[in-house]
Amino acid sequence: MSLIHKTAAELGALVASGEVSAVEVATAHLDRIEATEPKLHAFLHVDREVTLSQAREVDSRIASGEQLGPLAGVPIAHKDIFATRDMPTTAASKILEGWRPPYDATVTARLRAAGLVILGKTNLDEFAMGSSTENSAYGVTRNPWDLSRIPGGSSGGSSAAVSGYQAPLSTGTDTGGSIRQPAAVTGIVGMKPTYGGSSRYGLIAFASSLDTPGPFARNVHDAALLHEAFSGYDPMDSTSIDAPVPSVVAAAQAGDISGMRVGIVREFAGDGYQPGVIARFNDAVKMLESLGAEIVEVSCPSFDTALPAYYLIAPSECSSNLARFDAMRYGLRVGDDGTHSAEEVMALTRAAGFGPEVKRRIMLGTYALSSGYYDAYYGQAQKVRTLIARDFEAAFGQVDVLISPTTPTTAFPIGERADDPMAMYLADLCTIPSNLAGNAAISIPCGLADEDNLPVGLQIMAPVLGDDRCYRVGAVLEKAFEARWGGPLLKEAPAL
Amino acid sequence: MSVIAFDKALERFEPVLGLETHVELGTASKMFCGCATGFGAEPNTQVCPTCLAFPGSLPVANEAAIEATIRIGLALNCSIAEWCRFARKNYFYPDMPKNYQISQYDEPLCFDGYLDVEVGGQTYRVEIERVHLEEDTGKSTHVGGATGRIHGADYSIVDYNRAGIPLVEIVTKPITGTGAMAPEVARAYGVELREIMRSLGVSDVRMDQGSMRFDVNVSLNEPGAPWGTRTETKNVNSFRSVERSVRGEIERQAFLLTSGEKIIQETRHFHEDTGTTTSGRSKEEAQDYRYFPDPDLVPIAPDPTWVATLRDTLPELPSVKRKRLQSEWSVSDHDMESMYNAGAIDLVEATIAAGAPAADARKWWMGELARRANESGTALADLPITPGDVARVSELVASGSLNDKLARAALEGILAGEGSADEVIAKRGLQIADEGELLAIIDQVLADNTDAAEKVRSGKVAAVGALVGAVMKASRGKADAGRAREIILEKLS
Ligand SMILES: [Zn+2]
């Protein structure tokens, strides 16, 4: 089997044993990227020389006997919202075109220290605002399963890169589903850790109280390895949790879920769910039962109000977070010709530098926070958030994990929802509650929808700091599904 | 601008004051990052991704600043919040890197306190509404143009060294019942606040460097009528200006009200040169700051036992200390107030601690040294002389090694940077004449002044003064006048 088809764990072992070098592994993936990028456009930035020099450094660290983790020498693609000091970081926005941060995000720094080699920076919806990568200022990324369809979003470049065998691992950020939804529609694993479990330092903020860095991989165990490698308390992020990281790798290897109680949320059903998605979800429920889990139906009545609450909180925070892009200290500057005041330069730059969806959300948020509307909008949304957290708390009093489809539909065609923000927002219907409550949730592949032969994702939600449960249930289900399918779901994907 | 004389204004109207005070804390690092806070560094050398608001950077609250704020709150008799949050105050301005300021909105760290101030022997209780913590902005310089303001400037440059320095805002409740004393009460409040900051050691409270600055609110109403519309005078940067801005605003508002005009709720700028204010932004143009809790920062929940420890370890507060010292030194209210106003209390205290008797310490600081400070236009505390120097001079006078005149010469030498008391004395040869020298001088003086000598001999003892004066002159001030008198009287008896 070629290097690009191996798991991250296998690649790590090969490099550790000296059978292959980090340079060889990186080269294989760079070649794959070069060959497939014209079709996928998963990357915004690739620099073969920078990548190979990182790989050479890892090889020499290993040769000198340095003890690196299990992922040393494994390549990774970073969503272009994590600061990287040797590559540009743009958040897929014109306003940061070519910007090179003088520092690494905590996530990128920790993975560098663990010996992972950066293949490049992946595409996303501008500032992570979207569910399709169509909002990128640098062109749309295509789904490896069907090049006419979206790879999900906002971390669509990261999901396409892993699904398309350009990278064994990638990072994403999940604010309303931006890891789980792209993972679901590209047939891979994507995890949103507990909020505060992974550091936001160096992650360009969209909505600070929701943004959560997380891993993409082609299997649950690889995702757990990556999760463990970058997670944990960071004194640079005051909202990061000062507690041990749940043992997610051990959980992914536990192999038993008999006696676990699995809840189905009654509210995640109804119109808008594609029949093929419902069918695969029901298969997963049966599979869980056959594996010894007890299925319980639970009600989370406040989940119905999650979407509107999210679309007040996230834009409100973004309207403030994005105020710093003002042409004064970095990034794009428009109108600096001696005829405009500082305020005019700010306005001209922001008008030229932000795309329509970003502007829409800044305006929504500015309005929701304005005096006289705050209580009715932002204040009310925060109350809803509390209610949703209580619903989760009550549900997790009855069950160990909750399950749902990750998204109501499979990957939709590029352009289909581009002019209909409300339809686009519905893609995150099932994923948003976990962002509002801050709990852990993973998406794993659970088959193909009959009507379009596209991947369907199963979401497994666990309590705050119960990330290990997602991996435990996910790994057991994955093994059972792969036994039924005769291998990973991705082998059904068309060759690129 | 038309005004009504202050006394006339106070015949018809009662003023209501409000003061907002910003104090830059003297923490080693900034409020939300690790950058240094020293004043006067090269522009943009004390900056990092966080205080420059680079993408992805995050704030982490400075515990020392939170502690200092709680201590200020406790010193001002405030309640301390069990749980509170930072909030974002959103507005665009080039010297504010994030285009929002991290501040506190409806959940201040400290609230509901008071500070008693004394003016003219009367105590006024100023109630404190809140004490909260926020970050300072950068500093813009507008180059070109006539006004130094952003409009009309050719270009502007920004120094972000100040951006993110912890700033405490202390807000009073409306201060009523001060009448004609309003300007003095406002000033006394500011002075007392500065004394408290100093005693807590939380800030260098240098008004000339902007580490303490005031916004002054004033309104007028007729007795019994509801409060009037208030104006807010921004960035008043000295105690004298606080007093003058209150006075000026009372006179201006009184004129408008007696002319049947309305007061516009607005911010005003104070002009040091004229002592008057001019209109700034009116309320209609006021910004909507879109405050909301900062999601980047966890709430502050001070541990009650920690707060109790901070309360127990507060230093003796200035007003309490003044009462104690006054009784220890046995001085009048008036003398104590003079020392307080001259900023001499700590200096006198330190001089006594260095060995000088209370009366002598007070005499030197409030006499010779106060005169010299006044001449050179510096604060007493800024004179280049230590309480130790003063105590040494006082000791030498007591032991008879120096007389009053030589002591003043010694102080002059110390102030001129010639060294310590002993060094100056040695260099300048400030040594009282010895007995042998003195006798010789006296003999010569008696020989040269036979008329005066004869008067004394015949019982007109008052004439001895002229002879002592002649001895002092002949010795160039080095004689001990008392001893000279004794010897002369002995010789002429
Ligand atoms: Zn800094």
UniProtKB/TrEMBL annotation, chain A:
Keywords attached to this entry: ATP-binding, Ligase, Nucleotide-binding, Protein biosynthesis, Transferase
Biased composition (Polar residues): 168-178
Key word Nucleotide-binding present: yes
One Pfam match: Amidase
Gene Ontology cellular component list: glutamyl-tRNA(Gln) amidotransferase complex
Domain of life from the UniProt record: Bacteria
ATP-binding as UniProt keyword: yes
Stored InterPro entries: Amidase, Amidase_CS, Amidase_dom, AS_sf, GatA
Cited Gene3D superfamilies: Amidase signature (AS) domain
GO terms of molecular function: ATP binding; glutaminyl-tRNA synthase (glutamine-hydrolyzing) activity; transferase activity
Gene Ontology terms describing biological process: translation
PANTHER family recorded: GLUTAMYL-TRNA(GLN) AMIDOTRANSFERASE SUBUNIT A (PTHR11895:SF151), TRANSAMIDASE (PTHR11895)
Function: Allows the formation of correctly charged Gln-tRNA(Gln) through the transamidation of misacylated Glu-tRNA(Gln) in organisms which lack glutaminyl-tRNA synthetase. The reaction takes place in the presence of glutamine and ATP through an activated gamma-phospho-Glu-tRNA(Gln).
Name of the protein in its database record: Glutamyl-tRNA(Gln) amidotransferase subunit A
Organism this protein belongs to: Nonomuraea soli
Gene expressing this chain: gatA
From TrEMBL, chain B:
Alphabetical list of Pfam families matching this protein: GatB_N, GatB_Yqey
InterPro entries: Asn/Gln-tRNA_amidoTrfase_suB/E (IPR017959), Asn/Gln-tRNA_Trfase_suB/E_cat (IPR006075), Asn/Gln_amidotransferase (IPR018027), Asn/Gln_tRNA_amidoTrase-B-like (IPR003789), GatB (IPR004413), GatB_Yqey_C_2 (IPR023168), Gln-tRNA_amidoTrfase_suB_CS (IPR017958), Gln_synth/guanido_kin_cat_dom (IPR014746)
Gene3D superfamilies, alphabetized: 1.10.10.410
Domain Asn/Gln amidotransferase: 346-492
Function: Allows the formation of correctly charged Asn-tRNA(Asn) or Gln-tRNA(Gln) through the transamidation of misacylated Asp-tRNA(Asn) or Glu-tRNA(Gln) in organisms which lack either or both of asparaginyl-tRNA or glutaminyl-tRNA synthetases. The reaction takes place in the presence of glutamine and ATP through an activated phospho-Asp-tRNA(Asn) or phospho-Glu-tRNA(Gln).
Protein name: Aspartyl/glutamyl-tRNA(Asn/Gln) amidotransferase subunit B
Enzyme class: ligase
Keyword annotations of the record: ATP-binding, Ligase, Nucleotide-binding, Protein biosynthesis, Transferase
Catalytic activity, EC: 6.3.5.-
HAMAP family for the chain: GatB
Catalytic activity annotation: L-aspartyl-tRNA(Asn) + L-glutamine + ATP + H2O = L-asparaginyl-tRNA(Asn) + L-glutamate + ADP + phosphate + 2 H(+); L-glutamyl-tRNA(Gln) + L-glutamine + ATP + H2O = L-glutaminyl-tRNA(Gln) + L-glutamate + ADP + phosphate + H(+)
Domain of life: Bacteria
Binding partners and assembly: Heterotrimer of A, B and C subunits.
Spans through the membrane: none
Gene Ontology terms: biological process: glutaminyl-tRNAGln biosynthesis via transamidation; translation
A GO molecular function held by the record: transferase activity
